Amino acid sequence: MRGFDPIETASRDELTALQTERMRWSLRHAYAHVPFYRRSFDAAGVHPDDFSDLADLARFPFTTKQDLREAFPFGMFAVPREQVRRIHVSSGTTGAATLVGYTAEDLRMWAEVMARSIHAAGGRPRMMVHNAYGYGLFTGGLGMHDGAERLGCAVVPVSGGMTQRQAQLIIDLRPDLLMATPSYALAIMDELRARGLGPGDISLRLGLFGAEPWTEGMRAELEQGFGIDAIDIYGLSEVIGPGVSVECIETKDGLHVWEDHFFPEIVDPDTGKVLPAGEVGELVFTSLTKHAMPVIRYRTRDLSRLLPGTARTMRRMEKVTGRADDMIVLRGVNVFPSQIEALILAEAHLAPHYLLELRRETRLDSMTVRVEARDGGVHDGGGGLAHRIHATLGINVRVDVVAPGGIERSAGKAKRIVDLREGER
Q1: N or C: which end of the chain has fewer CB within 10 A?
Q2: Band of the pLDDT at 348, cuts 50, 70, 90?
Q3: How far apart, in Å, are the Cα atoms of 7 and each of 15, 16, 21, 313?
Q4: Rounded to an integer, what distance in angstroms lies between the CA atom of residue 373 and that of residue 376?
Q5: E-strand spans in 248-344?
Q6: Is the pTM of this model over 0.70?
């Protein structure tokens, strides 16, 4: 399939030459205009002039979210504030704010990579897009919106929340493409089902879902429930927002990174050592074309691996399995919410709405998996799921099966973990 942009199918040699040229510019831009990077590079004993090929990037220091927090609000800007045309702010899970800024050129590039992403996912000009990502300080809604318009789509800017209205607009306007977090897409699906509507009654053909890890079981749930192709998209505000990478509809075999703008590495989360292609580790990104706020070797904390390109020349990143800081250590065993989700979705009588409650009892940690039953399903009280979790992950958990609707829905990123251990120590 022909891409939105010819660079998508350029040779690796052409791409490497372009990346090297742009990397050299980005390192110099950051060093010359951001005091943090000048101090960081100097402390590591490296200078942008030391860069001659892409392997040299490993000599440069990392950037972390804490670095961005300490530079709040404008300390990471590489241009005068007067040249910034948009600002997004995120408080994260700790309440400490991070801020990202965009010049007019940055916004143009972002819209281009988002249009590219929607096209790779199967979107086409003149399609109608129902955008249920949150608008405002969160980058999802506006990033998706600008890309869809750049592609030539009609956008319904619904944002998150008001789920009954979301369902009614899908019924009335008959959009082709739904864009949302996967957990909120499930909430919309539940509302449509409550009105007696199934896949054959819904106009949607495609779904572009991201902003949180989701499993292949969740993909099957969404595809069967809506009658669509469900495509994964990845991004993070610190790098640009959504549109860093995306699956291609013709393969659905990993997310192609737009490597002409974002250079990926995989490193060992503990040592920071760059890992060979194919090994699982922490994703690290360096921006190649950002003006307002370049990022050099930004540690995402997301776990994945890099694979060769297939539908596009650019390398693929495997679907994110979880975040290094979302990992639960339960009695010495490392567990990710996505692993629990996959086992829940293997149980036909359980719905994909769940919450993991962590407690400390008699000085030992425990987990309760609260999960919804499906409408009309006959379940065993959770014994089967508890056995499957123990057999697969090696941990003992309690399973609390609640009635349909018993788990609170989120209009944005789903909250999967409730940690009650602090108050019990």
Answers
A1: C
A2: confident
A3: 8, 12, 15, 9
A4: 8
A5: 255-257, 262-267, 281-287, 298-304, 306-307, 316-317, 322-323, 328-330, 333-335
A6: yes
